[in-house]
Amino acid sequence: YKLRAQNKLYTQDPSMRDQQILEKMIDDAKNWTRTFTSDKNFSEVLHIMLRTYIALAQRADVEYTMSILDNEQPNNYFTQLSKLDYADYIYNLNEKEKAVNIYENTYFNTKNLDLAARAAMSLAKNLLSNGQVNKAIEYINTILKANPEYFGKDIPRSLELAKLFNQKGQFDISASIYEDAFAKMSKLDPSYEETLKDLALVLSHTNRSSDAKKYL
């Protein structure tokens, strides 16, 4: 439970990263995996280790941890989630083709709707960066039909994507993402006010401009 809490706190927000805490997390996780080799949470702890190594920018350890998950529990939820985290990591290191292959493989093969939605968002973001707007919209429309709640579960990625669609002049799709994400946002969220304003502005560019007023 401690590792879960630390994972949320220290591996997801770059501004919260503390090398000493991250290294202590690795030590704790290693001790746990040595003690509980057949525990049902084994793959989750390896996933936390992978995210921590990514936060520490330790590529060799990232690769090693990913290979253990891949070889020992290839169909496990946390292995598939780790693959998406790994793909994000290598995408940002400019290994985009390899990352996109992982996103596509997850999108087409996973039975988990949330993992499919996250992979679709990553594919859409990549397509937008390459100017393939219509293909990006297809992926987002799939999420809007099959799993619109996901935008509210993955708020930082959703807001980034909504902003990108807005910049491309795709106001309807941008507004849909903003609305689904905003519906699940806490008023204490640091980006709450900015998201409220962005949502209203995007709606004002659609044929639902009257809806914008309720957010202003």
Secondary structure tally, helices = 13
- Which CATH architecture of the largest domain? Alpha Horseshoe
What number of structural domains do the residues give? 2
- What's the oligomerization state? single chain
Total DSSP E strands: 0
The CATH class of the largest domain = Mainly Alpha
Topology-level CATH name of the largest domain: Serine Threonine Protein Phosphatase 5, Tetratricopeptide repeat
The biggest beta sheet is recorded as: none
Q: Which homologous superfamily in CATH is the superfamily of the largest domain?
A: Tetratricopeptide repeat domain
Can you put this structure into words, describing what you see?
With 216 residues, the chain is mainly α. It has 13 helices and no strands. It has helices at residues 2-10, 19-35, 42-55, 59-72, 77-92, 96-109, 113-129, 133-146, 150-153, 155-167, 171-182, 192-204, 209-213. The longest helix is centred in the first third of the chain and has 17 residues, at 19-35. The mean pLDDT is 90. The protein folds into two domains: 1-95, no CATH class; 112-216, Tetratricopeptide repeat domain (Serine Threonine Protein Phosphatase 5, Tetratricopeptide repeat).
Features:
single chain; 216 residues; mainly alpha; Serine Threonine Protein Phosphatase 5, Tetratricopeptide repeat; 13 helices
